[in-house]
From TrEMBL:
<dbReference type="Pfam" id="PF00107">
    <property type="entry name" value="ADH_zinc_N"/>
</dbReference>
<dbReference type="Pfam" id="PF16884">
    <property type="entry name" value="ADH_N_2"/>
</dbReference>
<protein>
    <submittedName>
        <fullName>NADPH-dependent curcumin reductase</fullName>
        <ecNumber>1.3.1.-</ecNumber>
    </submittedName>
</protein>
<dbReference type="InterPro" id="IPR041694">
    <property type="entry name" value="ADH_N_2"/>
</dbReference>
<dbReference type="InterPro" id="IPR045010">
    <property type="entry name" value="MDR_fam"/>
</dbReference>
<dbReference type="InterPro" id="IPR011032">
    <property type="entry name" value="GroES-like_sf"/>
</dbReference>
<dbReference type="InterPro" id="IPR020843">
    <property type="entry name" value="ER"/>
</dbReference>
<dbReference type="GO" id="GO:0016628">
    <property type="term" value="F:oxidoreductase activity, acting on the CH-CH group of donors, NAD or NADP as acceptor"/>
</dbReference>
<feature type="domain" description="Enoyl reductase (ER)">
    <location>
        <begin position="17"/>
        <end position="338"/>
    </location>
</feature>
<dbReference type="InterPro" id="IPR036291">
    <property type="entry name" value="NAD(P)-bd_dom_sf"/>
</dbReference>
<keyword id="KW-0560">Oxidoreductase</keyword>
<dbReference type="InterPro" id="IPR013149">
    <property type="entry name" value="ADH-like_C"/>
</dbReference>
Length: 342
């Protein structure tokens, strides 16, 4: 890594449908110099997450889209390389939002100091970071699982879904995971300890899901949509709760068309007839009130061996565009991070 050049990935064009490598541009710029009250961050790990697909789109969303020519947004673990800020020292390891680049300036706002002795720093981007907090807040505030209930989670081997199922079991519920392929399913069942797991790639997926949920579904944590949602809806019990966290099956959809069946009327009938609670959420609405509790509880669960995780590590910032495209297609296995430096 050069000490004078800042490698970064910028948005070259807005994707239409599936993102292409040409939608991203890798370039070099001079490493910025911190002024008074600033720090220069050297990025060690970059988090790749599905929400980034929204941020590179022009569609209206919970956050403004990034502009063409801007560095792609993203959470990072970084080292303070140079400090002209009274609260930060050179060598501090911090959680930051430096984005897809090797170096970034910060005035200290939003930085959180990490202790590598407690957990590997990269976990601040996964099980002890935004994905873990998403699972914790969405499940406990909206899902509200009770002992003995059935909790189903899609993308169960991923950064959010893996934590949802484990917390559900810690709260006394029965956890059923949905994952893609035998390897991911085996990980969910054998490593994470879910009570059951169903492969959404199986031709008889809907039947297998029904067999895994003989008493119906009380909480469904939605990360996917698409044909997974179609199989879940008939199994939802009266007063079921559905935290809507992600819709990754639809993120690469192109402009809306009139082809295909309109599922909305049937879904709305189920919601009305069964008094189902369906609530979308963005994790930041819970951050201020609950992040400290999450870090305390999740940290204790990890210490006791009750909360496990898996990382999918890609080396080199140049690999970020292809890794991100693969994430949207389900090619990652665990929390996807890019390692820029050790």
């Amino acid at each position: 890594m050069s000490d004078t050049q800042n490698l970064r990935v910028i948005l070259a064009s807005r994707p239409v449908g599936r993102p292409k490598p040409s939608d991203f541009r890798i370039e070099q710029a001079p490493v910025p110099t911190p002024g008074d009250g600033q720090v220069l961050l050297e990025v060690l790990y970059l988090s790749l997450d599905p929400y980034m697909r929204w941020r590179i789109s022009a569609a209206k969303s919970y956050a403004p889209p990034i502009d063409i020519g801007d560095v792609i947004v993203g959470g990072t673990v970084a080292r303070v390389k140079t400090s002209r800020h009274p609260e930060w020292r050179e060598g501090d390891i911090v959680l930051s939002d430096a984005g897809w680049q090797q170096y970034a300036l910060s005035d200290g706002t939003g930085l959180r100091r990490l202790d590598p002795a407690i957990a590997p720093p990269s976990t601040a981007l996964g099980v002890l970071g935004m994905p873990g907090m998403t699972a914790y807040a969405g499940l406990l505030n909206i899902g509200q699982p009770k002992p003995g209930e059935t909790v189903v989670v899609a993308a169960a081997s991923g950064a959010v879904g893996s934590v949802v199922g484990q917390i559900a079991r810690l709260k006394g519920a029965r956890a059923v995971g949905i994952a893609g392929g035998p390897e991911k399913c085996a990980f969910v069942k054998n490593e994470l300890g879910f009570d059951a797991v169903v492969d959404h790639q199986a031709p008889d997926f809907a039947q297998k899901l029904a067999e895994a949920c003989p008493d119906g579904i009380d909480v469904y944590f939605e990360n996917v949509s698409g044909h997974v949602w179609d199989a879940v809806v008939p199994l939802l019990n009266d007063f079921a709760r559905v935290p809507v966290c992600g819709l990754i099956a639809n993120y690469n959809d192109g402009p809306a068309t009139s082809s295909g069946p309109d599922r909305l009327p049937a879904t709305m009938r189920e919601i009305l007839a069964k008094s189902i609670t369906l609530r979308g959420f963005i994790v930041y609405e819970f951050m201020e009130a609950q992040q400290d509790a999450f870090l305390r509880e999740a940290g204790q669960w990890i210490k006791e061996g009750k909360l496990r995780w898996r990382e999918d590590v890609v080396d080199g910032l140049e690999q970020a565009p292809d890794a991100f495209i693969g994430l949207l297609e389900g090619r990652n296995f665990g929390k996807l991070v890019v390692r820029l430096a050790k």
